[in-house]
Design brief:
This protein is mainly alpha-helical. The chain has one domain: AhpD-like, CATH 1.20.1290. The protein contains five helices and no strands. The longest helix has 33 residues.
Amino acid sequence: MTLAADSQWSAARNELVPFIGERATALFAHAVAAGSGESAFAGSLRRGLIDSGEDLENPRVTETERLLIDWGWMLGRNPDAIDDATRARLDASFTPALRGILVRFAAVTRDASRAADSSR
């Protein structure tokens, strides 16, 4: 990943963590990066989660973390294809302001994932 992409991602991450916590931010970031396809960045995030004790094959997550993981995968694959049921869950779970922060973080995460792949 380029220094600029890393700096932008770190700033977006630091904006999000106070709202949803370190663990949820890491799970969301991994879901977005992995959903966007194989990438060195997704692998790095995966290793970080595993090193911190996460079982990504059978994660023990809260309902909110499950929503973030599911939505992250959707955002990684195709941000324009979020189904109505997921939108309703997001509306019920997060304020419009926090949804905006999450979307910006997901966009920066996708960009960082692409930058990591192009720099290999």
